[in-house]
Amino acid sequence: MRRRTRTLVGAALLALFLAVYALAALAAAVMLQVMDNRWIEVAYYAVAGLLWIVPAGLLIRWMAWAS
Fold first, then answer.
1. How far is the C-alpha of 49 from the C-alpha of 34, rounded, in Å?
2. By C-alpha distance, which of 4, 21, 29 is closest to 55?
């Protein structure tokens, strides 16, 4: 796959992943009822807000990989 095509596919996948991840994190917060305790809510959103970086970084590395 050419780098330009891989970048286009990767960008589309990244946008889709982030949308699905944000909805899943929100649904998990509601199901876990993290709003009951303010400190648990802050910790949950801090972790959930940083957790997406690992798969996004792997996808970006794949997009930048020269063939």
1. 14
2. 21
Query: 59 near 10, Cβ under 8 Å?
Result: yes
Q: What are the pLDDT digits (tens) for 50-67?
A: 999 999 999 999 999 866
Those residues of the chain that have pLDDT short of 70 are: 66-67
C-alpha 40: how far from its chain's center? 20
For residue 14, give the nearest of 67, 61, 66, 65 by alpha carbon: 61
Task: Give residue for tokens 């990767």.
Answer: 10
Cα Rg, the chain, nearest whole Å: 16
Q: Can you tell me the distance from the alpha carbon of 36 to that of 40, in angstroms, rounded to the nearest whole number?
A: 8
- Report yes or no: 42 and 57 within 8 Å, Cβ to Cβ: no
